[in-house]
Amino acid sequence: MKFWYRQRISFLALLLLPLSALVWCVSRYRYRHRNQNTYPIPVVVVGNLTVGGTGKTPTIIWLINTLQRHHYKVAVVSRGYRAKPTRSYPVLADYTDTAETIGDEPALIAQSTQAMVVIDPDRHRAVQFLCDLPAGQRPDVIVSDDGMQHYRMARDIEILMYDTLRGLGNGCLIPAGPLRESSQRLSSVSLVLAKQQGPQLPESAIEVAQEVIALAKNREGVELPRQTVNIHTAIGNAESFQRTAESVGYTVNRTVAYRDHDKLPLEPIQRSDFPVLTTEKDAVKLSSWPDNVYVLPYELKYGPETAHFLLHRIQELIDEKRRHHSRTL
User: Fold this and answer.
1) Binding of ATP: at which residues (predicted)?
2) Binding site for ATP: residue ranges?
3) Binding residues
4) Which residues have C-beta within 8 Å of that of residue 21, sequence separation ≥ 6?
5) pLDDT per residue over 22-40, tens digit each?
């Protein structure tokens, strides 16, 4: 919604403010009545304050890889947006699952990290399922893919992804603006992260990632030299992806943006007059991979201070929960 990001509140936003006031009331009620009964396993939520892509999925992949390098067993819970599972919730993903059955982001996370992935619209139920697994299968840490506003699920650490390019827009809650809940939440989360530098840095402390980007590759692993391309993508922030492609050295002739999580139609791709660049998230949804499609690899890395803070806090939580559990036996 372009009017969300205008400096002044537009007439359309003014018309929608009564609905935003209702959203504010509901979000405040849910926050005040949030589940504060923690689980026996630490839960880390990585989510957004605003609508749209902020680098949440690559941040989750970085976090999982960091934890796995330090020998933690990690599981992920996700809503599984637009998933069509073949079995009842909660669904523990296995080798038979695809982006269609578990959702594009869970599929990408599972492929990239080999971590356990459980999808369920009720994230509390998904976490409880993991906590109830036999001791040998139970994870050490649970990472929630989004779910910042899913207050039925308790959490120990909240990581908020901030959009430094667009900021908080007009500062209004949806549908008058891009906020999912009040901007006051910025001061109550454990950590604020951003995928890139930008003009809309918040006043609160923020850690900006280092973007690791290479040349795009096709399904055979052949790199695409820097040249003119078309972009076809169905992510939350196509404009940001275009900037990323241009930063690598590609000249973007046209960007075709579909609704977030949509499956890319093959016909327009096959008719493209230039090679087609797309994202890793889009690629996991392709039923077949045309020869002219190239995926731009994208990775985020955060500094050692951020990694140390999270590792130290997670180990503290594990130790606390084990001591509490031993006292209750």
Assistant:
1) 50-57
2) 50-57
3) 50-57
4) none
5) 999 999 999 999 999 999 9
